[in-house]
Design brief:
The strands form two sheets. Strands 2, 4, 6, 7, 9, 10 and 12 form a seven-stranded mixed beta sheet that branches. A hairpin with a 7-residue loop joins strand 9 and strand 10 (156-157). The protein starts with a helix and ends with a helix. It is built from four helices and 13 strands. The protein has 281 residues and is of the alpha+beta class. It is elongated, with a radius of gyration of 22 Å. It has one domain (27-280): Immunoglobulin-like. The model is unreliable at 11-25, 197-201 and 207-276 (pLDDT under 50).
Length: 281
């Protein structure tokens, strides 16, 4: 009887040790952006996007959104997580220029083999507060897709939590609709996370074209998403290697990260077969 009691106690202790890990795994990835207080008009501030928690995804389509009539993105620095993603045979697209007029920074990730499970800082954004801003700002994380999709396996949406950045401006008031401080979701939060980009914002016209660039006064408080979309003349940004990022790639990511992943996986399989044939010869 004493031996049975000892075994039972050992099992309970082991279960107690595993419980916190199980709870953490259920939590999934945790995306965090730091806030800043009392920024003066014309002042600059930094916001770092970080990820923590236990997760494993092969495809992700993320968006960081801000009010372009109140804030201007003046700098973006890739940090440890981005650098590690770029070091492998992964598809990584970071676009912060194409949709800057809508206040959107897009990040698409496709992992053909090993899943992404990195922890740490992803990238740092530097913003400037425009003159005349009278409403405190928020920088919102929207997840369009977050899935585990191993080659030959099923695509499974993964859990995540977002913590958005709240930026208080000197002398400003809170928005009438309150702040979106973040949420817990599985797979995506695109239907529940609001887009704070003002409806009046339109795509800037090309140089020499007097039409198109009409925006409301800085600090406008609007929470409706726009109907406008970039046209074929939208300029594409350059990545760290100076190569252009085609806007058409986003169509594949928006349709499903698995499409991007499948293409990348196909390349990996082809390379593997080629290598094996060379070894056999």
């Amino acid at each position: 009887m004493k031996k049975i009691a000892t075994i039972f106690t050992a099992i309970l202790l082991a279960a107690a040790m595993l419980l916190p890990q199980a709870m953490l795994a259920d939590q999934g990835a945790v995306f965090t952006m730091n806030g800043t207080d009392n920024v003066p008009a014309g002042g600059t501030f930094d916001v770092t996007l970080s990820v923590s928690g236990e997760y494993a995804v092969h495809a992700a389509h993320l968006s960081v959104e801000y009010d372009p009539n109140s804030l201007e993105l003046v700098g973006l620095e890739e940090l440890d997580v981005m650098k590690s993603l770029r070091s492998g045979n992964n598809l990584v697209i970071l676009d912060y220029e194409t949709l800057a007029y809508q206040g959107k920074i897009k990040l698409g990730i496709g992992m053909p083999t090993d899943a992404m499970n990195a922890k740490g800082d992803i990238f740092k954004m530097t913003f400037k507060v425009k003159d005349g801003v009278s409403v405190n700002q928020q920088i919102v994380m929207i997840v369009n897709e977050f899935v585990n999709a191993p080659v030959g396996g099923e695509s499974t949406p993964q859990a995540f939590t977002t913590h958005n950045a709240i930026i208080t401006i000197s002398g400003a008031k809170d928005p009438e609709g309150g702040f979106n401080r973040g949420e817990e979701a599985v797979g995506d939060n695109k239907t529940s996370a609001p887009n704070y980009q003002p409806t009046e914002t339109k795509q800037p016209a090309e140089s020499g074209d007097p039409t198109g660039n009409t925006t409301p006064e800085p600090g406008a408080d609007s929470t409706k998403a726009p109907d406008t979309k970039p046209n074929d003349n939208t300029k594409t940004p350059s990545n760290n290697n100076g190569e252009k990022t085609s806007g058409k790639v986003w169509l594949f990511i928006a349709a499903g990260g698995v499409v991007v992943l499948g293409a990348a996986a196909g390349v990996a399989v082809a390379l593997s077969k080629k290598k094996k044939n060379n070894e056999d010869n």
